[in-house]
Design goal:
Radius of gyration: 21 Å
Helix content: 40-55%
Order of helices and strands: HHEEHEEH
Strand content: 5-15%
Number of strands: 4
Largest sheet: 2 strands, antiparallel
Length: 119
């Protein structure tokens, strides 16, 4: 009594395609990076609005990141006690918001990728 496996070639082909699709890291990182930039902008202090409008998102090497190129962004976020500047901690708040959504976003994106590959 033997076992016959059907669809082995198709399964191998689908798994190879899935591996290639996931090679650059999990899908959904662009969504998380944009969510982080948006959250940071919403939490940043708004004296002129320049800081809030400066946040950008990027995805590279399988990692999502967001931040501001403005030189004073770090001081506003972390503070500078020697100069009487209290940190606003808007980046930590934004990161916490992204972390809370990350699992669901990546899971959904991987599920969609699997479906697209016909697995």
């Amino acid at each position: 009594m033997g076992v016959t496996v059907t669809g082995r070639v198709e399964l191998a082909r689908g798994l190879a395609a899935l591996t290639a699709a996931l090679a650059d890291g999990p899908p959904g990182l662009d969504v998380l990076a944009e969510a982080g930039a948006s959250a940071a902008a919403s939490f940043a202090p708004r004296r002129s609005g320049r800081l809030a409008g400066s946040f950008t998102a990027a995805v590279a090497a399988g990692r999502a990141s967001f931040g501001s190129p403005l030189v004073y962004a770090g001081v506003q976020d972390g503070g500078w006690p020697a100069h009487g500047i209290t940190g606003q901690r808007f980046m930590a708040r934004a990161a916490a918001e992204v972390d809370a959504r990350a699992g669901a976003v990546v899971d959904g994106a991987i599920t969609r990728t699997i479906a697209q590959e016909g697995l």
